[in-house]
Every structure is written in C-alpha cells, then in structure tokens.
Design brief:
155 residues; alpha+beta; 7 strands
C-alpha cells in the first residue's frame, strides 16, 4: 500500500460510493452486500459500527463491527459479545493488506471499549474466508451461528 489506510464513517457524501462497492463475484455468496449491512446498521443502532476503509481518497472496502450484543438469548442471556460483523474488500483492492488492516482496526476499537475477545462468523467451505481469519489468529470455537463457523480472537 502506498498510503496509509484509515476508517471513516459513512456520510451523505460517501454513501453512494459505499453502496457501489463490490467484492469478487465468487465471494458474493460469502458476504452480504454493503446495502444489507447499512440497513442492518440503521436497524441495530448503536450496536452496529459501520466504517468505510479508505486509502487516500480511494474507497477500498467496508467493515462493520457488532458491539456488546446478546449472543444467544435462549442459551445464555448474559453472554454478550463484540466482534467483526462484515468485511467487504473491493475486488480491485484485494491482496493489498486492507482486510488485515480492517480486522486490526476493529480489534483496536473493541480493546478501546474494554473488550477482551473479538468474534467473527464465516461461511464454511474452501472458498470462504476461514483461512484468512485463522491466519490472523482467530480460533474456531466449535459453535455455529446461523449455519456459519464462529471464530474468536483474544485481545
């Protein structure tokens, strides 16, 4: 990367660019589009933490964290977790370290808020992001969430 990536809030000036962001076509089954993420961010309010990933003026991705949610209310209403909800890196920006940057930035935000663990879920399968998350230090918990694999990273 030639510049230093950063996270920025989605604003009226950047929302159209965010909505136009596309991952590689073969990844579309593994991650929801930004449109769904922004709708969920609106619906979930302060529980969602959506951010654009910018490098200079170039939009290279979108990341959204979840903050202090009740994980499985029926199983344990006291189990509250925070973690990575969505990560979309633009098809033309992949392989440049932006995904790693985004995960590390979310981890730093969660640490700042007092979390000691960061959770993530992903679609199982060889073409999913599981190996990427494991390389970053996430370990599989053995749980499933909506059919997805659950990983955790100690902060």
């Amino acid at each position: 990367m030639t510049r230093s990536p950063r996270l920025e809030r989605v604003t009226p000036a950047t929302v159209d660019a965010a909505l136009a962001l596309r991952v590689h076509p073969h990844q579309e089954r593994n991650v929801a589009p930004v449109t769904k993420s922004l709708a969920e961010a609106y619906a979930y309010g302060e529980t969602a933490w959506p951010r654009l990933i910018l490098d200079g003026d170039r939009l290279v991705g979108f990341v959204m964290a979840f903050l202090d949610i009740v994980w499985d209310e029926k199983k344990d209403p006291g189990d509250r977790r925070s973690g990575l909800w969505r990560l979309n890196i633009s098809a033309d920006a992949q392989g440049a370290g932006y995904g790693r940057f985004a995960v590390e930035a979310v981890a730093e935000e969660l640490r700042r808020r007092g979390a000691d663990r960061m959770y993530v879920t992903w679609e199982p399968g060889g073409d999913g992001p599981g190996e990427f998350y494991r390389r970053l230090g996430f370990r599989i918990t053995g749980e499933k969430s909506g059919g997805q694999t659950v990983g955790v990273l100690d902060l």
